[in-house]
Structure formats: C-alpha cells, structure tokens
Amino acid sequence: MIDRTHKLSVTRQSKLLSISRGSVYYPPKPVSPQTQTQMNRIDRLHLELPFAGSRMLRDLLRQEGSRIGRKKVATLMKRMGLEALYRKPRTTRRHPKHTIYPYLLRKLPVTRSNQVWAMDITYIPMARGFIYLAAVLDWYSRRVLSWKLSTTMDMHFCVDAVEEAIATHGKPEIMNTDQGSQFTSQAFTGLLKENDIRISMDGKGAWRDNVFVERLWRSVKYEEVYLHAYETVSMARAGLKRYFRFYNSRRPHSGLDQKTPDQVYFKMSPLPMAA
Fold this sequence. Notes:
Number of strands: 5
CATH superfamily of the domain at 116-265: Ribonuclease H-like superfamily/Ribonuclease H
Oligomer: single chain
Distance between the termini: 47 Å
CATH topology of the domain at 116-265: Nucleotidyltransferase, domain 5
Helix content: 40-55%
CATH class of the domain at 116-265: Alpha Beta
Structural class: alpha/beta
C-alpha cells in the first residue's frame, strides 16, 4: 500500500491513504506469547473491573493459574496505559510542562450534533503484539466521526484523526479529551485553536468526564476486537472499519432511544418495522 520508492514522501502517501504515520514507520510492538496472553487478560479484566489495581489484578490472574507478580502486572499496565478507576483508566499521560485546560462540559446541555466532540486512545491487542486506536466521537449522537491506528502513542495519529473529522464533518464548538500529553501538545491544541474550537479537558481522576468514549471502548473490544486475533495492522484496520460502519449505521443505543448514531447525527427517521 505504501511505496517507499515512490517520489511522494511516506508522510504524504499515508495522508492521501488516510493511514496514520505511526502505523507506517513502526511495526507492531512484539512481545512473548506468555506476556501477550497476560496483557490480553489484563485488558479484559480492566474493562470488567476498572477499579482493580495491580495487586487485585495479580491475585485474579493467580486464581486463573497465571504465575505473575505485582511488579510485572504494574509494568504491563503502564505499558498498556491502564490505571485503576480511582485514579482514572488512561492510555495517555500528562506532560508536566504542557498547559491544562478547564473542563467545560459540567452542567452544559448538549443538545445537537457537532456541539461537542470527544477523543481518547485505547490499547488494541493483536495475535502478536499490540497497537493503539484513537477515535473522535460526537458527544450528542455517539457517532464515531474518525479513527486512526498507530503502533506508538505519539500525537501525530491524534492530529490526523481530528483533521480528518473536521474535513469530513465540519468542526465542533468544543473538543473534550483527557490530560494526556498527546492532547496537551502544541500540535494538537494548536490545531483546535486554528479552527476556533474551545478546548475542554477532564478533571484529574474524573474518568466519567469522558464517559461516552469509555463506553465506546467497551463496545469495540467485546463486540469486535476480542472476537478476532488480528495478525497485521491491515487486518485490524479492516476489522475496525467494518465494526465502526455497523456501530454508526446499524447498532441501536439505549441512550438514544434505540436509535443508531447515524439516525441521531443526521436527524434520520428510523426505518419502518416489517409487518
């Protein structure tokens, strides 16, 4: 797909093909089969028991027969970007020198599409190794507006995702993220300011400030990722593309009165039921 001998740069080719630069320059991070199994199980347990810290996860894994110590659990959690709920489960980490912006959504009525967008990053396990997924979500309709994959947690694939969302759907009034360094970087905040988008960031430790993205991750993993063992980034991209198409256009949401995100975002009428 990417031709490294072409006169166009790899960066330009990846942009034209809507592929994150991170997934082009770096292969998925390899890990041993044992570590891969442990990481995948930790990821599942974290979704089921988000309050569980490294000590509890160690004990749960030992109950299942895994000989693992607390130190290794903590190391794997850090590598995956996970923290127990009491501090906030996060794939991103705050940069001490970056500006932190206030949370703007508290008591704010969100009444229309493109009023507020939210964004986050999550860990995606593969057959061998893992990658990261970033997604832009419309807060009102829950519609996934854009998404990107990367083998590294740099800010480039986050910027790429926002640029694609703006090019396709216009721009929101507010963008909400956590305080991770990807989102406080000059490149990311600068893009939002250039487009006159107000910046909102979750309060430290307040995971519910971005709750709709957290719910999206749970749906993505249980309904798609955990059902497949992606061998390559291309396979992961194809599977997630198929899933997000289903999620937006066909999957009903109880919080949307059983409508789909597309129906709410585009103000479409539900299809009539068959007699």
